Amino acid sequence: MEQLFSNLPVLVAHTGQNKILYHLVVIIFAAFAAFIPRYFPVLFFSTRHIPEWFNEWMKYVPVSLFTALVVKNIFITTAGYRFVPFGHVEQILAAVIVMVVAYFTRSMSMSVIAGLVGVWLLSLVV
Amino acid sequence: MVKAQINPGKARWLEVLGVSMPLCLSYIPIGLACGILLHAAGFNFIMILIVSIVVFSGGAQFILASLLTINAPLSSIFLTLFFLELRYALLGSSLSKYIKSESQHFIWLFAVSMNDENYAINYLKFATDKKWTPKDALMVEHYSLISWSVANMVGGLIGSAISINLEVVDFALTALFLYMIVMQVQSHLTLVISILSAILAVVFMVLTKSIIGVIIATLIASFIGFLIENTVRRRSKHPESNWFLTKLFRPKITRTTVEDQQERQQLAAVKKQLEDQEQSQNK
User: Lowest CB count within 10 Å: A39, A57, A124, B229, which one?
Assistant: First the structure.
């Protein structure tokens, strides 16, 4: 394992021409980036007692995280992480449509489809 | 309390498939979109299939595609993905109490195929459905994994044939997150925390100029939520009728979680004990 990692920079340096090999290396790195944060916390907390306060704290994690990600997608530029309040007006309006549909139907597919149709139609107008 | 089953012979896997169907269906357009983006970034369809199985995260794959198109170095690809996936540490530890009694192998399998959407379904199911087992939860994960990776591969195959506005396609992810927020916001406090998290996310992303701003905002906002709830429960004489903890008006939502029911049962048991003690003292 250690050898594999110490050889990686050399391997990558020689893959200028070989796209498939480079993509495989990217996939391996991506797999580790996906695996580490998923597995170890679950393992840690499934073998130990979880303190009550930690559980109570975790209760508010999903809603905070999803909000932060939505804000990132709508109000933050991907290039320089600048704040643009009205950079995607059609997405803001479509977001309102999604929330209304989700509130009344409680259906995930309905909400996503309404959002996609909404943002597509609005992008033709705005 | 026990509901009569309409079809007792109905196989469990079919039932679970029914639960995961909305998710599997909504993965199709997003998966197609992701496959198209990854194809545009230079991956062939076998690579797309592999990456969608091992990463299995819409957000990470969308970002991976955009990093590949700008020829970002391997180190920054790894770090960006790692910070983006760091949220699973939080999601996973909040689910771990339900899968405690399972084997190491099961926990491994469960952890690698967890993602935002099947987490949302499983969390809701574990919290509201007493009969929901870890095996069912794993099944939901695998159904969604199959639908996601197949949709990705098909997207990769048709990517060269059709041209779609990629920015519209990108919105599928935002819509999915919005849906989950609306499902999560039940009390006034969750609404306050959601708004707080939005403000903090902007501040910290602009300050750090990276995705880690999302993680910082999440940790702070959720911790403040915990602090407020804790303070209200300790200080207030009637915590349930406090403004923060009362439920928002919602159409047809009267679900109580399993935890709520257990809490009520425990309270009743303690009350009974106290009454019994009083009676025996009076005698």
Answer: A124
A124 to chain B: which residues are within 8 Å by CB? none
Question: Would an 8 Å CB–CB cutoff place B152 in contact with chain A?
Answer: no
Q: Are B168 and A120 in contact (CB under 8 A)?
A: yes
Asked whether residue B102 is domain-assigned, the answer is: yes
Chain A residues near residue B148 by CB distance under 8 angstroms: none
Counting the structural domains of chain A, the total is 2
Q: Higher confidence at residue B212 or residue B227?
A: B227
Q: Which domain holds residue B38?
A: 12-184
B221 interface with A at CB cutoff 8 Å: yes
**Is there a contact between B34 and A15 (Cβ–Cβ < 8 Å)?**
no
Chain B residues with CB under 8 Å of A119 CB are 168, 171
pTM above 0.90, yes or no: no
A65 shares a domain with A43: no
Q: Are A42 and B149 in contact (CB under 8 A)?
A: no
- Residue B231 burial (CB count, 10 A): 12
Question: DSSP class of residue B240?
Answer: G
Q: What is the pLDDT of residues B109-121, one digit of tens each?
A: 999 999 888 888 8
Give a yes or no: residue B27 inside a domain: yes
Smallest CA–CA separation between B65 and chain A, in Å?
11
Give the domain extent around A29. 2-48
User: Do the chains contact at A35 and B112, CB–CB below 8 Å?
Assistant: yes
Q: Do both A41 and A70 map to the same domain?
A: no
Query: Residue A65's closest chain B neighbor by CA?
Result: B218
Q: Is residue A73 domain-shared with residue A110, that is, in the same domain?
A: yes
Over 90: is that where the pLDDT of B198 sits?
yes
What are A64's two structure tokens? 């905070």
For residue A8, the model assigns a pLDDT of 52
Q: Which residues of B touch A112 (CB under 8 A)?
A: 26, 29-30, 172, 175-176, 179
ipTM above 0.90, yes or no: no
A67-84 confidence digits (pLDDT tens): 998 998 899 887 788 898
Which of A109, A114, A48 is CA-nearest to residue B96? A48
Q: Taking CB atoms and an 8 Å limit, are A32 and B184 in contact across chains?
A: no
Say if A90 falls within a structural domain.
yes
